[in-house]
Amino acid sequence: MKKLKVMSILVYTESENGKLKKAALEVVSYAKAVADQMGTSVTAVAVNADNAETLGNYGASKVLLVKDESIQAFNAKKYAAILESAAKNEGAKVVVVSASANSKYLAPLLAVGLGAGYVSNVVAAPSSVSPFTVKHSTFTNKAFANTEITTDVKIVGLSNNSFGLVESDGSASVEDFSPSVPESGVTVESVDKATDKVSIADAEIVVSGGRGLKGPENWGMVEELAEVLGAATACSKPVSDLGWRPHSEHVGQTGKPVASNLYIAIGISGAIQHLAGINSSKVKVVINTDPEAPFFKAADYGVVGDAFEVVPKLIEKLKAFKAANA
Ligand SMILES: Cc1cc2nc3c(=O)[nH]c(=O)nc-3n(C[C@H](O)[C@H](O)[C@H](O)COP(=O)(O)OP(=O)(O)OC[C@H]3O[C@@H](n4cnc5c(N)ncnc54)[C@H](O)[C@@H]3O)c2cc1C
Predict the structure, then answer these.
(1) Do domains 9-176 and 205-324 have the same CATH topology?
(2) Domain 9-176 falls under CATH 3.40.718.10
(3) By Cβ atoms counted within 10 A, which residue in 136, 273, 274, 284 is the most buried?
(4) Ligand 1 within 6 A of 209 CB?
(5) What phi and psi values does residue 36 have, to the nearest 5 degrees?
(6) Per-residue pLDDT reduced to its tens digit, 12-24
(7) What is the mean pLDDT of residues 111-134?
(8) Global pTM?
(9) Does domain 205-324 have CATH number 3.40.50.1220?
(10) What backbone phi and psi angles, to 5 degrees, belong to 195?
(11) Does any ligand 1 atom lie closer than 6 A to the CB of residue 241?
(12) What is the pLDDT of residue 210?
């Protein structure tokens, strides 16, 4: 197979409060697979990350570490400039980012700077690197497309939890990187997180509740189930519109996208706008009293039953299972 001449594959690794996110380890794992296909290596870019050397365990051979307190909070214009500078220095022909809201904001700016083609929501390693063809979800996750990126420099946005983490016994050299960063015209004064629990974007498991739960006073069992499973909590749009749950938990077409390994929907009908946001989840479990609820058509496993009976039993069984396997 004809090999492209590249210096390395560049990856943007996201961190929060100095800690690399799980998605950062996944994009590096993915980039390593692409690098192996192309016969090259992986260079990661990290900003204010305390544990940057960890990226070596997932396939990066070099980390360009930007240490700059003035860009502690994400700023798309500044971060795109950092990535552009790194890509040009490294002669990178492929740049990998995650599918987070920040990366989806950053990637188009970077694409303009590098004159690159950008495909988001990629779900697998390239089927071919020459031509460079990637599989990605499309039409709000109702279909997949295989798209060839024909530009010299290519940007891939990887869907969360689509590739997984692949550990290796490699190690990475960490180099300080201080590119010139432009003024952006926007200053982030503070970032107040809606919750300090598992975030929906990073979660492997999401437990989600709908209007079938009747009221906010009944969310205790949703939270308890989420806690037993180490999951994030989410909800349908009406639930957040009614003020039963914070808007940060609203998932769907007009809310957050979910790409978890397991999505448990309790008392949610499965309207098309809800499914649009959660279709990328691998295994969907639905608990609903109505056997005709549309969600059952999209479900991998379904329980026709009253959430107020099923969920407490599920919690009890899971607790017993965990205790027996502790
Ligand atoms: C432009 C637009 C954008 C939208 N975007 C979104 C979006 O991003 N996300 C979103 O979620 N919605 C969105 N919607 C709304 C969407 O169309 C639905 O109205 C909404 O998803 C329904 O929420 P629900 O399933 O919680 O409630 P309902 O439709 O009221 O369904 C409740 C379900 O609970 C079941 N149930 C009742 N009691 C129990 C019980 N005791 N145990 C178990 N099950 C029970 C019922 O059988 C029913 O299926 C959007 C709509 C529009 C028009």
Answers:
(1) yes
(2) no
(3) 274
(4) no
(5) -65, -40
(6) 999 988 999 999 9
(7) 97
(8) 0.77
(9) yes
(10) -155, 155
(11) no
(12) 98
